[in-house]
Design brief:
There is one protein chain. The protein is mainly alpha-helical. The protein has helices at about 1-15, 20-55, 60-70, 75-85, 100-135, 140-150, 155-170, 170-180, 190-200, 200-229. Helix 5 packs antiparallel against helix 7.
Amino acid sequence: MQDMAAAFSLALGLIGGGDREFWGIVALSLRVSGSAALAAFLLGVPLAALLAIARFRGRGGLLLLANALLGLPPVVVGLACYLLLSRSGPLGALGWLFQPQGMVLAQALLALPIVTALAHRVLAPLWEEVRDPLRIDGAGRLRCGYELARMGRSALATVFLAAFGRAIAEVGAILIVGGNIRGETRTMTTAIALETQKGDLPLALALGLVLLLLCLAVSALTLLLDRRG
């Protein structure tokens, strides 16, 4: 019990002491997960709007795929990204393996189905409400998509937060493509997993507390946006 209390005390010291390595891990995690969530959002929302507005062959299959991939195992995404980014892979020339860019790619692929499926659930009912007025006005697909996004902006903000929450809490995929290299690709989740195995509980506890606070902040923002919406 005393050892746990001492570890907790040291963890608080790391958080409040301005440790450079500790806050570097936090900053990299925010940068990677924020970039991944933004990339997934910028790809997923237009795709969701297209699925809500257009009727084309294969539309149902795309919707089914997006919903099926909501539970996509992170290690499978990590393996796929590793094969793509390895020297013999089709994207090997980019040099993203064991780099933050590869971690962003893995997390973006994990978040993309979430953004697409949730954004479609937001935009499809809105399209039913405004479809006839927009068609009478002669609006094209781009304008229709813009109007849908504008009307559903509060709900879409919660979709972005959901994507960020998925990315920031992920460990399997980025451990495979990032490697947890000290000072380069070490994020909060990978550091917690590996430092706990090594017995460095203060660092793991400190990162765990910060990660928990971030998740609580995301949940609070989501609730706030839901109420405003």
